[in-house]
Q: What sequence folds into this?
DNA sequence: CGTCATGTGTCGTATTTAGTACACATTTGT
DNA sequence: ACAAATGTGTACTAAATACGACACATGACG
């Protein structure tokens, strides 16, 4: 969708400055994909990988999985499952929060975390 | 996933009691798909249709699109877009609300609707 | 200077998604 | 009785998804 590939590349290259195990080949091997495939992903020559692969890649690069999935144009299957169990409720909530500033959403998160129910 | 097909069938057959324009063929035509395809969908012989088709079908049957999409194992693209814009925020919020009772979620929805921000 | 690792180009493929097209036997309506 | 409408079985398909395999030129470095 957006610059998933280039972002990955940038992060990997940053990590590489200090640690040469972050080459395309070695990262690909640890993530469990072909180096050529990772190379294509980073250059945006192919679409972002599957959710599972994206998550493994995020972990390997020390990034937040939900953020990487978002860059890949996806949403974690576990979040989807939660929403699907109460579609009306969550659909309303999310659409309500569309324009709300981060601050407001955060307040709600904290409120819920502190178990006001 | 669940009983998307049979649910559709039930709803359509209900509507049909009072209005014979709700045959497989006529509904299919209005929705813009082949009757054979709708038939297979209703019997669960094939997977639920695409988001666009599901939404048109829901409208045609007077059902909530988000609920029908949920039955189809999907989540509306517009909701996904909202989440993807602030993945960390929404991921946290949704996971927090996973176990919260409907009541608590509703309270949050109202709170936000009444614009406390 | 040789070799080893690196990034990438090319080609191929299995699986899933999202349907269409047609024919046919069976009601249903008049 | 007969035409029209109905539901469904069978067969096919175009496009997208998610990769793997291999070869090759270039560069790093000991």
A:
């Amino acid at each position: 969708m957006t610059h998933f590939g280039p972002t990955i590349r940038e992060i990997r290259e940053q990590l590489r400055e200090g640690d040469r195990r972050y080459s395309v080949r070695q990262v690909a091997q640890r993530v469990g994909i072909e180096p050529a495939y990772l190379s294509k992903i980073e250059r945006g020559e192919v679409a972002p990988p599957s959710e599972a692969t994206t998550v493994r890649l995020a972990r390997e690069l020390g990034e937040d999985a939900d953020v990487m999935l978002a860059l890949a144009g996806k949403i974690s299957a576990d979040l989807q499952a939660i929403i699907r169990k109460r579609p009306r409720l969550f659909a309303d909530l999310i659409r309500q929060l569309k324009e709300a500033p981060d601050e407001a959403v955060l307040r709600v998160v904290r409120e819920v975390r502190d178990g006001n129910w």
Remarks:
- The mean pLDDT of chain B is 95.
- Chain B is about 70% helix and 0% strand.
- Chain B has two domains: 4-75, 86-113.
- The domain at 4-75 of chain B is CATH 1.10.260.40 (434 Repressor (Amino-terminal Domain)).
